[in-house]
Amino acid sequence: MGVVGGIKCIKYLMFAFNCLFWLAGTAVLAIGLWLRFDPKTKGLFEGEESPSVFFTGVYILIAAGALMMVVGFLGCCGAIQESPCMLGLFFFCLLIIFAVEIAAGIWGLSNQDKIVNDVIEFYEKTFENYKNTKQEVLKETLRLIQFGLNCCGTTGTIFDGAKDTCPKKEGLEAFITKSCPEAISEVFNSKMHVIAGVGIGIGVIMIFGMIFSMMLCCAIRKTREVV
């Protein structure tokens, strides 16, 4: 005898939620692999001066995407097959992800200044090395950063010696624009509340996922005991 009533509704909500969770995991994994191996971005990870935060970030994306796919699969199968074992594994995996998310948030907040300084230092060294060597890999790395942040050089002028890597500007903006160290600091400082909000939102969704999985698991066991 299967679950009925409100619990049956939770069952199909769990299935739909975990289908979306699996798709999100696929997207996160694809983005992580793209960032790591795309010719335009792999220079961020292969340079001698690349900060560890780049490696850490991209491999966290890859691992998180793979884990999300596994968790989504467990949740889908556990819900549709009414399997207490799979639902228990789903709950346990969500609990681990939730704990890791909290730990990552605490680490990120406590090391924010160091991360910003490491990224700025990497940019400045890459900029100087490109001015001296004109290597194509360094050029692509600079273009990626400068076009992404809409900045130019270490001082914000086209006279820094790497004009060909800067976004095209017109009028006075062609001579004076935002420096990249300033732009990097602004991005980290202005987007922290957005990142925190997204993290809190994901955490709340995970809590509801754990609650619903336990409700469904208990209802399935109770139904089987009655039978």
Concise summary:
The chain crosses the membrane at residues 12-37, 57-80, 87-109, 194-220. With 227 residues, the chain is mainly alpha-helical.
Topology readout:
Blueprint: H1 5-37, H2 43-46, H3 52-80, H4 84-110, H5 112-133, H6 136-149, H7 180-226
Helix pairs in contact: 1-3, 1-7, 3-4, 4-7, 5-6, 5-7
Termini distance? Answer: 7 Å
Q: Which spans of ≥5 residues are poorly predicted at pLDDT below 50?
A: none
Described by the principal axes of the CA atoms, the overall outline is elongated
The number of E-state strands comes to: 0
Largest sheet: none
- Domain count: the total is 1
Hey, roughly how much beta strand do the residues contain?
Answer: under 5%
Rounded mean pLDDT score: 80
| Proportion of helical residues | over 70%
What is the succession of H and E elements?
HHHHHHH
Number of helices: 7
What is the CA-based Rg, rounded? 23 Å
Based on secondary structure, the structural category is mainly alpha
Properties at a glance:
7 helices, mainly alpha, 227 residues
How would you sum up this structure, described in words?
The chain has 227 residues and is mostly helical. The protein has one domain (5-221). The protein has helices at 5-37, 43-46, 52-80, 84-110, 112-133, 136-149, 180-226. It is elongated, with a radius of gyration of 23 Å. The termini are close together.
